[in-house]
Amino acid sequence: MALKATIYKADLQIADMDRNFYETQSLTLARHPSETDERMMVRLIAFAIHANEALTFTKGLFDVEEPDLWQKDLTGAIQLWIEVGQPDEKVILKASGRSEHVVVYSYAATSHIWWKALANKVERCKNLTVINLDADAAEQLSKMAQRSMQLQCTIQDGQIWLTDGVTTVEVGRETFKGER
């Protein structure tokens, strides 16, 4: 018998001063049985960074043909494809061909090693941005994961803070490829 996803609910207040975007989102996250709290919270951060009315969570780990998040236009064309983790070159090349822009968020302590091995293979992907989130911050985010969450995300001058009212985590990021 297949294991089912665990459902998490998050009321996420986003104050992105860099984009002048201020909104509260009521989100439902389906956490795949093989997904960690850390990865799920990185998906949530990725959502906050790119939030808009068209951005949605996908089947992700349940369907290898879909990213973790995407944004489609009214015709169904994929404008933004977001992967979380350390995807291989085939996934990145496919995403780059199917979407206007691809963003990968890595968050592991080994991300530098992964990127060093992959960088030359995806250099031709001009629509690719690869961002490494601080591994310690990602670990701290995992401690915030609850089945029901009230979170506030503030983005200002490229800095990201996520708080649940008790704990605040500053999420540092380093751009490996793309917009700096």
UniProtKB/TrEMBL annotation:
CDD domains recorded: YaeQ-like
SMART domains: YaeQ
Name of the protein: Uncharacterized protein YaeQ
Superkingdom classification of source: Bacteria
Organism in which the protein naturally occurs: Duganella violaceipulchra
Coiled-coil residues: none
Family matches, as Pfam families: YaeQ
InterPro entries per the UniProt record, alphabetical: Restrct_endonuc-II-like, YaeQ, YaeQ_sf
